[in-house]
# Entry
Amino acid sequence: MSNVLTDVRLALIAKLETITTANGYLTNVGGNVKSGWFNEVIKQGSAGSGLLVVQRAPDGEPLRGAEASKLRRGFRVIGGVDAGLDSYEAALEDIEVDLLRCLLPAQGQHVSWLPKGCSGFTVGKPDAYPPGDGQPAATVLVPLHIDVIL
# Structure
């Protein structure tokens, strides 16, 4: 029997890996998806023309039900790109558009890429950060919570 929390993280990574120009996106950032903490991943190499990191974020409070429990599993999907202060905005905006197009389902549609045991998810507002203050890459952070039935 597999752990549904691990299945959720791996499904999210697999979904992000579909972000390629061959699939109609603006970037090929799906070819460079990592799991972990962004500040640790970036130490192992540059973001180059695009990097995505799936990083844990605070979960929602677990809810106990009569038959099962529900957990709002939190993630931060962080897209990064190596670019100077004068040229990072367009590259970062391409990654941001690709992330939102990839993660936001059409209204009322079932999210087919989530594993069994997930009852939904929410995507928060993106937040962008320029390179600097010791951070070599410009980044965009997209918060995500996935409702998991335990």
Notes: The chain has a mean pLDDT of 89. The beta strands are 33-35, 51-57, 63-64, 69-81, 118-123, 127-129, 138-149.
